[in-house]
Please model this.
Amino acid sequence: MIEFLVFIGLPLLLAVFCYFMQDMIVQFGLTLLAAFSHICLSALVFFGFYEANLPVFFGLDALSKLFLLILSNVYFWVTLVSYSYLKKPVMPKAEEGKKFYFMLLNFYLASNSAAILSSHFGMYWVAAEATTLSVAPLIYFYRNEEALEAMWKYLFLVSVGIAFAFIGILLLTLSAEGTPLEGRQLFFADFVKNAGVLNPIWLKASFIFIFVGLSTKIGIAPMHSGDVDATSNAPAPIAALMSGSLRITALLGVMRILQIISGTSCYEFARVILITGALLSIFAAFVSMFRINNYKRMLAYSSVEHLGIITLGLGVGGLAFAGALFHAVYNSIAKVVLFLTAGNIHRRYKSRQVDHVKSALTSMPKTSWLFMLAFLAISGIPPFGIFFSELKIFEGMLFSDVPALLVLLMFFLLFIFINMGRIIFSMLYKKGSDEPALPEPERWESNHAVAIILLIILTAIAVFSPDVLYQNIIDITKDFGIRL
Amino acid sequence: MENVLSILFCLSLFYVSLTLRVKGYIAVLRSQGIILAILLLYPFIYDFSVYGVIIPLTILIIKVFFIPRYINKIILDLDIKRQVEPTIQQMTFLPLVIASMILIFLATHIISLITKIDVIPFASGFSAIVVGIYIMIFRKKLIVHVVGFLIMENGIFLFGTAVASELPMMIELGVLLDVFVVVFLMGIALNKIRSSFEGIEVTQLGRLKD
Model:
């Protein structure tokens, strides 16, 4: 019972409390406390020191243990920097947005944990929709027109998408007709056990609806536009939260139905769809990187690219599947660093346009170095983790039945790297015309420390490759019936 | 009885594709809510249980009472013109709807030969989903998009009863609550859009581009 309280109950209670409490410091302290207990307990559960016992509709398996740890890791660091971010927001209009910030953050944690811990499709749907509802007002934090438009588009597109996923869930019931599952509840585990007897036509239809619907939330092309708008206009901590954890939660829904399908004759069909969607998103990122002039938007497209890579790994299967899971972990950490440092740059230059940011390396050296390191990390430069996970995905593709796709992927990734590098180095090095001779020195801030810690974690996981993580990912691949 | 109600539901779809008044759209939302509530209440006439009446009652409260009232309030507050402003000719919209519905009914009939489904509720539900999407595509006003989304949700609900999926009550209530909060948030967003943009049409939303 205590685990249910810590994961879902406490954040929910705090959300109510924050609504009535006016004092920001108290709100921040309690939210941080909840985040800390969340990360402690999910780490205990992940390392196997604690056997969680959850009520009906909820459960824990290897996959949800991993994703829960990703969520609480991202959420903890984001909460930690939130207070200093709120004290110095980019735009003065944001005063009004502060009032509900921690309330929505807590509600986000509760709903996202519920989505990850759910063992029932209906419960997953309700919780996943609730995450959209909690994030949408946070996107409108700056209270300007762009943010408003982004919020409207995100809310509308994702709600329609999630409604499609609901049709997919209903079709799943239809696929169980005439089997022992008929009239039973939609628990993941039951469906995985009886996957062989499900009606393949309805199963395929269900997969399409769920994948297309949730891809609005994951950011898989061609449904990525709402997600990109939202991530690029949200304040930095929220963008980090969305890229690091929300997209992964939506991916979880696709992985649940993939787990059912992987034991049936429809597996090939699902793979084709996953690979197509993944390549389309990497292609969308590839195209947009050529003409982008907004660095937050560039980072949002980078998220589209990396979720594409993860989906590609899931679709290819084998070693690439394990690589994709590693990639999900590393990507979530690197994205937090990138968005937080980009938030610092935004605050200094008051603009998201690349052209307005000149010689950042001299005016804000600490942020700029961290930004550059995070860029190298996300591009897969060793010794950062993403290098190793991408290598696994490449190796898996090379020895799968679709080695030709590897050439295409490498081509896209190369140009994405070149274009991102061009943009970022022009921000850091290009001299502006009207520069003060001696810019005021940049002070240390909490998000610099967080960025350094996260970059160290990112390297440490890759270098030491802890057995627990490795074993957990092996367990997931076993659950999916994938041979490495 | 189920079939009769489903056909009434289809008629409401025809009405929504004919009318050009926003009031008409809201009336359709109300009637669809009533139809769904009756559809769920019907089995309990013979076999009454308090437990089973909760969901139809919630539907009645949320879909028939709260949401239409809320949308009406938004229309009055924002002083929205009472025309829906289509982006295509009404004379092309109606045939499009009719053709899609015929196609859906035929397809459902073919599907029913291999799987056991109730043809009319299944096809009506699916038609409502398609019509809801059409409304979102072919109408300019954002408030009408919200109505289109709700018609789609109603369609999914009918569809759910047709495939005889029984979700637990807690989750069913969660779904209804989610829909209500979505509409509520959309209403707040519309208020903000009204005060910061010149109008509340989809053409105003073109700031975000690559």
